[in-house]
């Protein structure tokens, strides 16, 4: 954080308190105005029904607290010359953050029609919760925000992600006491065990206890204060309390708490950066306890409102029809003394703006909250350094994620000084075979070290915590502030962040439509330890459905890749790491897998996204194939190629085409996804009338859902995971789900007409092989040698792939 | 909890310690044996390669700690005559819990072929992590378990769910320090704010700090002890520490900690039940700090293993090939002195069994962990009391969830004494219009009460916390121990528990195949505040994809209902509340909605799951209809009926059939889902060759995924939510997603051949109506009167439904 020349902790004079209060009142006025008014914004006339919006859909409860925080952040940012941003956690905080952005001018800079005058104020009010306008939550449309206040739970993880590798940045984070009850938020408190006071910035959590959610008191607000302090100390924080409902007293207390917190942060960072002892510091947290709906109506229709859950939404619901409510609203608005706050033109007065910092220091204008402005292209080294040599398909095997690990190590290394790349994962980097990265960076860790520890590093950029939520939150915060990263995760458990990825995709979809938001690096998932290789973990670890989940979302944003081998994984990862504004889902295996394509072939194949593997089929080019064997995913590719090999041997006259799909969205109509094939392209690959036997990595019906409009859809027969999971061998998994080579050959025989009597014998041989498998596995507990040792040789199987 | 006659806290004699240690050693021996051996289980011969499993896939690290806990739970259960169960949180705890169940005999009772002798021990060893055998996690197959140890995060919430309304039950819960890093677990600590010491049992968390996850130290194990104590006190607990690596010392400390904890629990409950002050007690927590892989190999190949993450899985990986490793394994196994522990027949010795309780008090035999044994049918009152009168379709409106609230109130009331029904939700019971339940039960709350509070009740059975994870975890624990409940949730945010519901469905699928597991009550979701009515919350609150997620899962378990009005919701809810072993997803609106069906009609319609609404169409019965208008969900039903009304007016010669689908799985082939229609049934409803315009509540491609095999699939055209979300009016939402009445009429005109010139004019009128909508909404911010005030009248629209 930048150091200030003057004493950092000067307490404010009465005049400064007046100015802070004026700013706060102005923000409160604007928040109420947004909820209620569509005209007469400065109350130059008595309030009439036609000034009131026909649908009252905003939320007041949290606004005065957020306005207080913003006002006081303005003060310290300005006084101390800080680089700062704020993550606004509470739900429905839109009115407050929009009000502050409009006051400081950052709003009008990105939305010039919402100017900082009476006309702009009218627009500001009208657009709020209005059709086609802005939502009641802090959202991508809100300048200065990297966090949507709708779902709740991720503010603190986002704040930590933003602070990583931003040593000069203060990230304030307002946590509502509702949000604080969620699991992800509760776990995020421990993120301070991973924050490096040397290379990372500071996070200042501000726990706002206004006491209520929608309809209930909150758990933390009703804790005895001593118990709350124990909790926060147990989280590794030193609590600073600000409590009250008298504005001037609260302003003084808040200013003092802010100064104490920032002095403490400055000292911690100075000491760490001057080479002080590497002990984890006790970071400050501010506990702000003010009434919900503070300064709003104390009572409505005889029921208490201010300071209760009843102020959560619209405290006065009937203002358009009910004159008494309308009078109460007018009195409420006038209680802020708007005539002191806004000039004749409607612009905020100089006193209101006295605390507001300048230029990019304004919270609504910081480039950190529009991270694409700061993003630099990631230095991804040439893939040639990492590619595995492939002279013929299937002659060698590698662990694809292990090969990717070498590339990631190089990226880590190339960003050692820039520090703008992080790898996150729930304790699984090595389990997922990416351990090569430790050659370039250890794992972030600020707790005590033991002699037996390996790869832990106070300055590490690999982030491991056993929480997919925190991993995702960190990475989102990191990307949204202009950096790069990758999340490696067990395939089944990435569902833990289904809802988080929803929100991130929605964020990107909305951001892409905002010209002032610069593109950020894509959110890249490596899903491995996948459904087909959970031999010992069994059913609980078998779920390939994240792809289905993501493909429901905005096609502008989502990309799904299933590279079938090491070099295709490199090519896909290279593309993903360079890309912007996407969510890339890459599913790849960590077990040894046949190398099918050389790097050049892999690049060409990935560029097409789907293509014929001529070397694997038996077409002669003179006619349409008799059958298409398609595959997507490493295990299905192996089984399909083994099936092709069996067909080549046993039914050599059959013209078999093998198609491999890397990019699942290629299957979609091109009107529905930018990567979708035209019907002509699709038909050229899959034909319009030949049987297509498709071996797919996940739930088979996903392929139907993508391809149902295609001409050949009626001939499409998909095999995949159909929830037949258990603890067993790799080959037994494909047998149980009818994705094995023998079943695929039987599928071909069942679907290609006119194969004749020879096929009957082949079909029986395949069925016999499956029976043999069942007996073998029951006896030995391992796969039969004919599948365990099978290798591809192009013109057949190298060794016993009987029958 | 039952009281014991003798002093509860007698500390064990040396002889008792010897016996406890013998039990622990026996369990450790059996855990190691399961990981490694397939023969020679009692080491009667020197260990040879052929005794070793070909694939070593188990996990050792957590087992000695779990065995210690089980041994000492045995002791207190036996000494105090407790009713107890344990939730085993740590991953890969299978070997330990299976070992203990086999020792106490409960295993052989449910799996007689795994007898308590040498032959059974061989089977116990061989089946572990073996194809078709048992997984390395605690799982449904494990007697005494309600919790799968695979995904991690939910143990403590499950434990609280089990304790609710079980006043005499002690629920111990072992929390691994890996799991403790997850969000759901971190949030679960605060569940003690909802535990009623009068009507609920006790939860005894045992935080096991063995220091490591798969590959990293854990956050909590490396906290300074004082900071950890602050954290646990902040969670509302009093920590009791058990630390060490000397078995006898640890046995003494553990016995003392257990006694102290149980004395404290007894005192708390006695005081509360004797009418003591209603202050939330400080419940005990045991912090058990023992080495990971304790008693295993200290070093392997020169690297430290015991006490490090290297003992997580298989400490000696090469025992089949490597004679040195094999010798180390043999020495390790013999270090437990099996000859003292097992008799000649292989059965555990009397000393080993000295601490084991009898009968149903054994942790592996408690009926609470096989809750179906205790489950009683839920007293659901006759629906006639709650049904809304419907004399003609569409003449009145009700809030469906409000009507359901009356039914739930009656269920709450009917279970007031039994206390076996709970309603859970994230602070949204009233927001979801279910507030009638407060007439029969308040909301559980153990924190201080204020005068302004409403419906909070120390003994309440409505559970609200702002965490979908905790809600789900509570309910799962409650159902798995034999009770009933319903989870009401905003539709978009139920994705937060995607991964939890995966695991619960997997649990039910597996349990249904185990004859000894009795069926439990279904997990019922009410998803409301749905995608079409998030007017002010906007895009972040709009997601109907949970249905897609659930429908990927085992069809034996999943059911999805979209009742279109209040009476159908009652009928569906009645069925769901009475059902067993399902996950029922019910999507219903909370906004006023037309009443289409009387109760009798609703029952008949829901029994069919899908059917023709003759009164809404214009078929004359003499021929196939020209077009089928299908609908599923309340908003699509309204729009489809409005479209039918427009067609009746403007194209009266068109034979329109209206089909409503309540049960989405009816669309699936009957081979794939027990509710699936035969092709004959499907064709009779939807025809094989007529255009079907289907208005669906969620993502339109879901309908294709369900129906792609049907004869008429090529004619199926589905409208639904296509991620065109924003802050806007209800009608604008359907327009943006092309699900509005005008678009549906245009779809009909575009797809029915030969409609002639008149249809051209009608189509233009529809397009004009959409244009008028766009202008109106931009100007007024509300829906046009012609849609806002539209009502159905059977033979047309009652008032202006122009054009």
SSE inventory with pairings:
The structure is a homodimer of 803-residue chains.
Chain A: H1 14-36, H2 63-80, E1 83-88, H3 94-104, H4 106-110, H5 118-127, H6 155-163, E2 169-176, H7 183-188, E3 202-208, H8 225-234, E4 237-243, H9 247-273, E5 283-289, E6 299-300, E7 303-304, H10 323-334, H11 338-341, H12 350-353, E8 397-398, H13 400-414, E9 421-425, E10 443-444, E11 456-457, E12 462-464, H14 468-480, E13 484-490, H15 498-512, E14 523-528, H16 546-551, E15 558-561, H17 566-578, E16 583-587, E17 593-594, H18 599-608, E18 610-612, E19 627-632, H19 634-650, E20 656-661, H20 679-686, E21 692-696, H21 701-707, E22 716-719, H22 730-736, H23 741-751, H24 757-780, H25 785-788
Parallel strand pairs in A: 1-2, 2-3, 3-5, 4-5, 9-12, 9-13, 10-11, 13-14, 14-16, 15-16, 19-20, 19-21, 21-22
Antiparallel strand pairs in A: 6-7, 8-17, 18-20
